[in-house]
Amino acid sequence: MLTFAYYLLKIIICSGILYGYYIIALRDKIFHKWNRFYLLAAMILSLAAPLIKINVWQKDNEPKTQVVQLLQIVSSGDEIVFDYTRNKNSFHVDASRLSIFIYITVSGFLLAFLILTLLKISRLKRNNKQLIVEGVNFINTNAKGTPFSFFNNIFWNDKIDINSSTGKQIFKHEVAHVQEKHSYDKVFINIVLTLFWINPFFWLMHKELNMIHEFTADKKALEDSDTEAFAAMILQATYPGRQFILTNNFFYSPIKRRLLMLTKNKNPKINYLSRMLVLPLTALVFFAFTLKMKTINSANNYSGKKITVVIDAGHGGDDKGISVNNIYEKDVALSIAKEIKELNKNDKINIILSREDDKTISVKDRVIFSKANNADLFVSIHIDGEENKNSHSGLSVLIPKNDNAYLKESKILGTGILESFKTNYQLQVSGDLKQSEHGGVWVLKANECPAVLIEAGFLTTQKDFEYLSKKKNQQIIAQNILNGIEKYATQTITLQTNNKISPITFTFANN
After folding, report:
1. pLDDT value at position 305?
2. Which of 225, 243, 310, 486 would be a feasible disulfide site paired with 145, CB 3.0-4.6 Å?
3. What CATH code is carried by the domain that includes residue 392?
4. CA gap 149, 358 in Å, rounded
5. Do residues 381 and 456 touch, judged by C-beta distance below 8 A?
6. Would you say 397 and 480 are in contact if contact means Cβ atoms under 8 Å apart?
7. Domain co-membership, 195 together with 330
8. 218 in the same domain as 308
9. 266 with 326, same domain?
10. Which residue in 392, 372, 395, 373 sits closest to 383, CA to CA?
11. E strand or H helix at 290
């Protein structure tokens, strides 16, 4: 509930900004089509922008501009809410359920009222005769609230003579509503209000959109008529009761604004300026709500002797590994491996891939390949899976058994990689290093250099599957692994220089 409430808050803020601009620069201006488009677009943007997430990556050692700092503030608000909702004891369940009940009840009431209105209009159409006049359904009735239009129907009040001067102007007014398809706007905005009734700016936009419909229809009704006569006709008209919230009633809108709009003088220069200024505003609102600043915690750039790192993409060829919905472990692992090589810009780190395409390689051949290239480090990339779907989630790093000659260095490498992921990964990250409990993993056991095996997540868990199958997230994984390698390289230089082991604490669990 808190996440939805936060979404509603962002909708209100976004729509408030856009409506504020409308009041300052566009309200009661003569470009009615533009204003209509703006209000509809503002509602759609307000609903969509908080749902869109565009990550902007910034390295932690790069200078942060004021724009970046502002985006980080907005992003931190999202993270606080998401972290808060993950804590089940952080809100009172009864209060949350009561809020949900109240919200759904009000939405249900509005939906029922909307359906009831549609049924009344449908019944009115069925119970009265219909004629085709100028391409629209002309329905003559004595119902209160007429005349009005709804989609391709004009419901006419039989007390008004359609052949009189007043009747002709009213008819042209209603035909304009039909031709401009104003009923689509009304249905859309009433559905939005049913779901997001708590937003006051949507109600204000609804009111303004109704006025714009009237302005547009008045303008068309006056194309060949006298403005003063039309204004006098509005003032002399009776103000009947309104029953249909979705319809375009001729005697609905406030008379004063309609009369002022009839005599509005045009100023194209100001009008165009007002319309053009909306572009930077909407761009600002969109990016403010969609861009999420993410920090890439890059290690200190390694500048020591050149080292060779073998990146091993697990499985390959006939060995597909874990597969879910035609997404194969072998392909995801290879994609991540290639990204590591592509992202590496340090000429002191030589990245070699054990395979660069989809081919079958035995685990023994992978170790032989590592030895042949005099590898200083070996990193094997895999994706986990299990029969019980959605049982486990997240990343883990495996190291060799305790009897391995390179255990200490493998711990340093594994710890560096884990630290990189803990500060920049949307899935869970294991708190410690792990060792296989079913014998030794050959690529860890047989390599003559520090070696780790990374299980980036569980393809059999829906959340992990959706994350791991996206290219942009594979790039994040690759960058984290590369950062871990640089951390290891920097630490080992310090160890070699001081000729002693730094006080680093390692924890690992048998698994």
Report:
1. 87
2. 243
3. 3.40.630.40
4. 64
5. yes
6. no
7. no
8. no
9. no
10. 395
11. helix 278-290
Same domain, 437 and 327: yes
- pLDDT tens per residue across span 344-359: 988 899 999 999 999 9
- The dihedrals phi and psi of 103, each to the nearest 5 degrees, come to -65, -45
Residues of the chain with pLDDT under 70: 1-2, 55-96, 223-256, 259, 262-276, 291-300, 439, 493-511
Number of domains in the chain: 2
Q: Which helix (H) or strand (E) holds 383?
A: strand 377-384
Exposure string (b/e) for 18-46, b if CB count within 10 Å is 16 or more?
bbebbeebbeebebbebbbebbbebbebb
- In degrees, to the nearest 5, what angle opens at C-alpha 240 toward C-alphas 238 and 246? 130
DSSP line for 312-338: EE--BTTB--SEETTEEHHHHHHHHHH
pLDDT of residue 223: 65
Ranges of H-type helices in 291-433: 329-343, 363-372, 407-422
- Look up residue 44 and give its two tokens: 């759609």
* Interstrand relation of 323-324 and 377-384 (parallel, antiparallel or unpaired): unpaired
pLDDT score at 220 = 78
Query: Domain span at residue 482?
Result: 299-510
The two structure tokens encoding residue 210: 């109704």
Tokens in use for 125?
């159409």
Distance CA 226, CA 410 (A): 89
Residues 6 or more apart whose Cβ sits within 8 Å of residue 339 = 474, 475, 477, 478, 479
Q: How far is CA 99 from CA 94, 102, 109, 197, 291, in A?
A: 9, 5, 15, 14, 30
CA distance 241 to 431: 68
Residues 225 and 194 grouped into a single domain: yes
Is residue 147 domain-resident? Answer: no
CA 321/CA 360 separation, integer angstroms:
11
- The string of pLDDT tens digits covering residues 370-399 is 999 999 999 999 999 998 888 899 999 999
pLDDT per residue as tens digits for the range 161-218 = 888 877 888 888 889 999 999 999 999 999 999 999 999 999 999 999 998 998 888 8
